[in-house]
Design brief:
elongated; 31% helix; alpha+beta; four-stranded antiparallel β-sheet; single chain
């Protein structure tokens, strides 16, 4: 196992000045700021990141990208014998599989199906909905244009999606109404057709 140099605590980060900083492994700092946090890597650690897991920046945020660090240096983290690491490792695998499936597959070689990953499932749903009008925004009946028991929606034609499952839209925006209960029971990807939108404009 290669050895890495310890580094000073970061004094600034992508998210703001650190309020707390803990060097989890030499060159890997876990930081929190007033707004966010995550892992900050030394240049040496960033260079050692496996290509399949490496991001362009030394900052790996705490919601999702932290999992890439745990996967990359899993053996080193395990060698610390932290009694909670088994939980952290399992969570890292789940997080990367669900939210960074391309990175996860590239690193582990495990072929993922849409049922294995939230992002892959969303991509499959969006690809199946290409050409339909996708719901982009919704308002409850508190809005002055939405009748009681209805949800007001706005949408555009779905033309595709990116690798993270964010839809791409084009064409004119349409406005419509849908039954509130039906809208509440919607799937991850909602189209005017799937929720029964009545177009009003």
């Amino acid at each position: 196992m290669p050895t890495f140099a310890s580094t000073p605590a970061p004094v600034h980060t992508l998210w703001d000045a650190p309020q707390t900083a803990e060097q989890r492994l030499p060159g890997i700092w876990s930081v929190s700021t007033a707004s966010h946090g995550g892992f900050v890597l030394s240049d040496e650690r960033q260079a050692a990141m496996p290509e399949a897991l490496r991001l362009d920046s030394i900052y790996y945020e705490e919601d999702v990208d932290w999992s890439l660090i745990v996967l990359a240096f899993e053996a080193e983290f395990a060698a610390l014998r932290d009694p909670l690491f088994d939980l952290e490792r399992d969570l890292a695998h789940q997080t990367a599989r669900h939210w960074r499936p391309k990175h996860y597959t590239g690193f582990t070689g495990q072929v993922l199906e849409p049922s294995d990953s939230h992002v892959l499932r969303k991509i499959a749903l969006l690809e199946a909905a290409i050409g339909e009008i996708g719901v982009q925004a919704a308002w409850g009946d508190w809005a002055d244009w939405v009748p009681t028991g209805k949800v007001g929606v706005v949408g555009q034609r779905i033309t595709g999606c990116d690798h993270l499952g964010f839809a791409k839209y084009d064409g004119p925006k349409l406005k419509g109404l849908v039954d509130a209960n039906r809208y509440e029971a919607r799937d991850t990807v909602s189209t005017f057709k799937s929720v029964g939108v009545e177009v009003i404009a």
